[in-house]
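Holo prediction — magnesium ion.
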Amino acid sequence: MSTQTHLNSKISNIEVFRLPPRWLFVRVETDGGLVGWGEATLEGHTEAIEGALCAIRETFLGWDGDRIQDIWQHAYRSRFYRGGPVLMSALSGLDIALWDIKGKKLGVPIWQLLGGKIRDRVKVYGWIGGDSPQAVVEGASLRKEQGFTAVKMNGTGALDWIDSPTQLSDAVARVRDVRALGLDVGVDFHGRVHKGMAKQLAKLLEPLQPMFIEEPLLPTQPEEIADLSRMISTPIALGERLYTRSDFRPYLERRAIDIAQPDMHYNKGADLFTYVVDPSVFAVKEGYVNAPEGPGLGIEINEALVRETAAQYATEKPWRNLVWYGDDGSLREW
Ligand SMILES: [Mg+2]
């Protein structure tokens, strides 16, 4: 049980901000006046996260915010039901904010608290869509101009269990077009290609040497992904829909993936820089972003803009993903 040994680290407030297009920010304040920011976004399920954060607020107000692990263990283990996208996204929002606070309190970046840097800069890719094929080359060219050397795109649009082979050759042509610009490419199957066609598409893409294929099947299919991994030489990335170390375990045990990939997302209308005071921390140079040097997360949130935008957005319906249907009326994976 937490005891309030560090008065100025006591959690005095936890606020949640719903922000367009589909973010959920968490602001944690201590009685010493330190503020940390976290992100609890689970796009399409905003209200569920807000509900989970109500319980987190009720539990952890007054706790010593320095005890990050203790808080994580209590949030995760003290209730009978645990894990999953809703509870873990909510907990992540609090957890990130507490690390931000601790870094600010000690005046160091979070990476300093985790053992120090192992690289000075991080290679990044830019998202270019792929759901609407015609926009792919345009998007890739723009990313190249912005300084990226690599992009990620969706492989296909909606697919039937067994669809026309044309869908596969079109996907290959789009990837080839982007590679022709001199860019490295990651191809996100988005779990929307079913096993029969995922095998084919992975094989067809192999000669184009994607950096990786992502979620080649649904994250409920570790055995099938392990089978696929043995069939192709292309690295397999997955993890966006896994939430804990134990969720990754079947993939690691089966040597099914090459890249453990935490959640990332793209946005329209508001982007990575929108709510950050100084976007230069994310400046892309020759395909890399420098490790942030500021304390905590190394970014400063534009709190006034967050509050103003969240107030305007409060009456709007939260973002929902598209629901796709085939010509036969059956549901397609999005
Ligand atoms: Mg993905």
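READOUT: Residues 188, 190, 214-215, 240 surround magnesium ion (CB under 6 Å).
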